[in-house]
Amino acid sequence: MDPLDLLLHPVRLRIVHAMSGGRTRTTSELCAHFPDIPKTSLYRHVGLLAQAGVLEVADEQRVHGAVERHYRLRRDRATIDAESAATMSLDDHRNGFTATLAALHADFNAYLDRAGADPVADAIGYRQGIFWLTPEEHGELVAAMLETLRPRVANEPAPERIPYLMSIIQFPIEEAPTRNAAEAD
Fold first, then answer.
1. Which of 59, 121, 159, 170 has its C-alpha lying 20 to 30 A from 184's C-alpha?
2. Are 58 and 70 in contact (CB under 8 A)?
């Protein structure tokens, strides 16, 4: 299966997120984590991710005569690198964005459906804003955000840590102004 088609799917994106941080989980545990996804669908998506090498078997145990597999995420196989992104068509980007939003929407609904969900206490944020930036200022902003986020990306689960899904979406909403040749001189 094409890596773009494999990873740019809302259910598979949610599975990848659930497996982050070096966690190992069985398909049964994933079913409990995602009660909104039919079990047969979840098993099929886990199978596709495992077949593609995005998930690997960390351990196998016999449980009631069946083999229960514990999977772990291979981070190196769970991302779309810059080279692959450069080959994406506009429709690929459109489909990827749609899959990302669908996964985000499903995960947020799952959060709200949890007993004790408290958006204020949990400091939930979903804001949008317009930033007027030159290309250089945009590059500086992206670099500053990466500098802030990079040290946290490798954090592993710990008793005091809670996994937060962070989605940073940014794109120009208008075309850049064009300058005519007389103005450029």
1. 170
2. yes
Among residues 95, 105, 83, which one has the least CA distance to residue 14? Answer: 105
- Specify the DSSP class assigned to residue 185: -
Architecture of domain 3-121: Orthogonal Bundle (1.10)
Per domain, the residue ranges of the chain are: 3-121
Residue 59 has phi, psi (to 5 degrees) of -165, 155
Distance CA 69, CA 182 (A): 67
Q: What is the pLDDT of residues 47-57, one digit of tens each?
A: 999 999 999 99
Alpha-carbon gap, residue 52 to 64, rounded angstroms: 28
Degrees to nearest 5, angle at CA 107 with 106 and 112 = 95
What SS3 state is found at 24? strand
pLDDT mean over 85-107 = 93
